[in-house]
Amino acid sequence: MVETLNFTAINYNSMKQKSYLILMFFITTFFYSFSQNITISGSITDGRNGEDLFGASVIVLDMSNTGARTNVYGFYSLSIPAGKHQLAYRSTGFEEQIFDLTFTKDTLINLELFMSKEIQELEEVAITSKRSNNNITSSQMEVTRLDPQSIKTIPILFGEQDVMKTLQLTPGVKGGGEGSAGFYVRGGGADQNLILLDESTVYNASHLLGFFSVFNSDAIKDVALYKSGIPAEYGGRASSVMDVRMRDGNNKNFAASGGIGLISSRLTLEGPIVKDKSSFIVSGRRSYADLFLVFAKDDQIKDATLFFYDLNAKMNYKLSDKDRLYVSGYFGRDKFGLNEDFGFNWGNKTGTLRWNHLFNDKLFVNTSLIYSAFDYEFNIGQGEDGFGIRSSISDFNIKQDYNYYLNNNNSVKFGVNAIHHTFEPGILESGSNVGFNQINLDKRHALEIGAYIQNEQKFGNRWALMYGLRYSGFNYMGKGTAYEFADNGEIESERTYGSWESIKYYQGIEPRFSASYIINESNSIKAGYNRIFQYIHQLSNTTTSSPTDVWVPTSNNVKPQIGDQIALGYYKNFKKDEYQVSVETYYKWLQNQIDYKPNANLILNGQIERELVYGKGRAYGVEFQIKKTKGDFTGWFNYTLSRALRTFEDIDAGKEFSARQDRIHDLNLVLTYNINKKFVVSTSFVYYTGDAVTFPSALYEMDGYQVPYVGNRNENRLPDYHRLDLGLTWYLKERKNYKHNLSFSVYNVYNRENAFSIRFVDDFEDNQTGQTQAVQTALFKMIPSITYNFNFK
Amino acid sequence: MKNIFYIIVLFLFATTSCQKVIDLPVNDTEPKMVIEAKYDAVKEEVFVKISKTINVFSAEAFPAITGASVEIINSNGVVSPLTDQGDGTYLLENYSPVYNSMYSIKINVAGEVYQATDALVPVVPFDSLTTEFQPQSPFSDAGYVVYMHITDPLGPNFYRVIRKVNGEYRRKIGEQFMFDDGFTEGNAQKVPMFSELFQIQDTVQLELISYSEKSYKYFQELRDIASGSGASAAPANPTSNWSKEALGHFAVYGYSTEIIIVKD
Prior knowledge:
The complex is a heterodimer.
Chain A: E1 2-10, E2 23-30, E3 37-46, E4 57-60, E5 67-69, E6 75-81, E7 83-90, E8 97-103, E9 107-108, E10 111-113, H1 117-121, H2 134-137, E11 143-146, H3 148-153, H4 163-167, E12 173-175, E13 183-185, E14 193-197, E15 200-201, E16 220-226, E17 240-246, E18 255-261, E19 264-274, E20 278-287, H5 299-302, E21 305-318, E22 323-338, E23 342-358, E24 363-380, E25 387-407, E26 410-430, E27 439-440, E28 444-459, E29 463-477, E30 480-485, E31 491-497, E32 502-520, E33 523-534, E34 536-539, E35 550-553, E36 561-574, E37 579-596, E38 612-628, E39 633-648, E40 657-658, E41 665-674, E42 679-688, E43 692-693, E44 696-702, E45 705-710, E46 716-717, E47 721-731, E48 738-747, E49 755-762, E50 772-778, E51 783-792
Parallel strand pairs in A: 3-9, 3-10, 14-17
Antiparallel strand pairs in A: 1-2, 2-9, 3-6, 4-5, 4-7, 7-8, 11-16, 12-13, 14-15, 16-17, 18-19, 18-51, 19-20, 20-21, 21-22, 22-23, 23-24, 24-25, 25-26, 26-27, 26-28, 28-29, 29-32, 30-31, 32-33, 33-36, 34-35, 36-37, 37-38, 38-39, 39-40, 39-41, 41-42, 42-47, 43-46, 44-45, 47-48, 48-51, 49-50
Chain B: H1 2-14, E1 18-22, E2 33-40, E3 45-52, E4 69-73, E5 79-81, E6 83-84, E7 89-92, E8 101-109, E9 112-120, E10 126-134, E11 143-151, E12 158-165, E13 168-169, E14 177-180, E15 188-192, E16 203-211, H2 213-226, E17 250-261
């Protein structure tokens, strides 16, 4: 039997915060067998728009070290003895709420938190009045999190706050360099990062030229980047996980926000479908990077098209207190074209269907059905005089994740995951006037599965452990043909398999571990270990990542990559958490790394595996960071000293060499200053050791040409990279329900030509000296931009 | 095929980029032996050039190695010596070819012996040459493309086209046109020579070389390295066929020649 009590519009008097709080409070009580402990559970949401708050906490003030955090869907569960308790609900950027209540039975409390009036005025800047020492107390190490408040305050580049660009300013994360889409985490390869958007894999996370990520910050709720101690619920990429969650959409009011800028424009529309129950959010963005081409000298290039667009759409529906349904999708594309004779385009599309279900107040489950695909296309010429090349990868994924709040000290997660991959390595179709045969490389198929269990356990007041195990398996299967190659690349044998017939099965056990010891409120030490198997690989034999890089599965020839990492960190806060200092060190071992035979051909190659060679890698480093989180002046500074090394039997006779991303010194400085309520200035400075590259070490003459003698792999360096960006945001006069600002930014303020590539050319300057010269190509000089941003409710 | 992609990617960046000469340190290595050897079956000439490498930024000329003993040996074991020209090159003329046979070369430089072999594959002739007008495009001005009509025999074939326009050989590394029959095996092909567009009245002479697979691979790798694109992440010195460590290659080849004068 269930007794329901509805309380509406209770004004709760609580210490100093009385006038701010209007609380909607539903209490449902259950008859339950008498037990000493009762469970308090529910969801914590943002009172303005109904968005779930991830990582919000409930603390029992009258008990030591007792509390719970909400999961990514805003759900929490707390077990405490029945009786009188004082509960505090908190979330960064929100005003805390405290309740004195007597509990006799399991209780459901769904709470809305609000920002205080003070905070609302300076909404664009995060100010917190309570202890914000999550970085000390959380047992999860090596997570860089951008929650909604942080996202609002990241520096604006090209008029937008870009989460990827911001993450690249944090320690351990290095951007691929100008013009490059990929990024590297702690010395790992560019394909070793799992990028998820609402649980769907994003294969290419950056648009053309690497300036903009595919993530439109207006639609993003939360971003978490795991660099080590990676939780067991994630698998498949050896170095990091970037988990991006979209907002659900304001379920109370309609709202619109966006920006119009020199380089791109965006618009987000959201609102309730059924007030407080269901909402939607649609977010679109389009660039007109064609403007860059205005600087080109050639007339035809000036007329070229160069743009990208992103579209995010999401809808959710609360079927009941126990069930919630979500549908979300992303579609984005980059297009480059020179009239009708040449076009190059690529992009991702993803779709997710999710169902949150509460079995009871301790067991929460999310079930998801996901589709994700990436493809690129080249078109040269038209009709019978032209040809086109296409390549793609697509996934169907089903997963189920459980959160079981066993008791106060133990929070268990377990789940299963299955992904069906289809690889389409290449199709060439040509018109009859072009002498190419039609090529249709066989599709390749695989099934990737995972199952995990993990517990987050607290011991007393100081120790917290997260330990788990993940089982991963990969079935490389037909329909298709599998080849065996001799050392010289000749095909030794081939065998054809039927649909779903297994060609080769690999499996691995992946232990995951993370521990923290809280010395006191301001100091803690954390350590972590993880092992991860990676079954799909991105092949790129050009020096920067490009959309034409090929994704290939593990197979009878290619083994899974294995990453093992240990990490240790020390964290200290000063001046009541205003300054946060951290020192982290790590060591990573990588097995079954892939490299290429000289002059390997990766395009339209039906036996691409014969071009590969295998080896191992290691990476280690120490990262130091200091953050100032409060006051008019905020920002961070970090410095990383690290190495990323590789060893391949087939390269330089097994001598260890630098990976391209072996940037020994890496320094980032980000500062934001609120001049007053109207103006905020921000700056970022980046410095890193130039990439490791291979230069010639001698010259000779052959066949009438001057030929460079290739030196040892990656023994040389590009010049160091450094750059300063500046931004100024002018908050214009607010009207009722309408906020707007004008944002100016300058990229590469002192106009440094950072090297994109170096070529050795005979007499480039035509001085007739007969001498070879090193010629540097730089991509971007100083680039200014203006954007007008608005927010309308 | 692969080149197109590099061109396109670099092309995107070339539009707003800037290039300049910079000072950069390199790790110069000690000089290595370079031996270039070729047997031109049509001219019936065997030519060898022996040299060494120089430092990357050096302004010196490439050294010439004289006084070596150089011999070419045919498939019957008959040895024919080359004459030292005194400038680092060695020559043998009027050496009649036997197609479908193996040749080896043996070089003795100051007691070090270098050997290599290559196969002389049959020459695939041109059927004909034709031209077609191509209007102006972002890649080039308007002009005529020469189409080579070849009947590709069954089995792997490896080609290189050397062109001579209005009496001048095109020698720039970026202008070398090489292709195999991977895309068009066994067909009567119509291969466009995109490397250059011609104008009316141009006299274009094409030489279609048929290489052995090993030599084709070598010249492809050489062209990739010598064109200095720097785009490959796995650069390596071309695989030479010398028995002892030396740069360069021994290639044996014949070619068919065809001339066309561009008309409307």
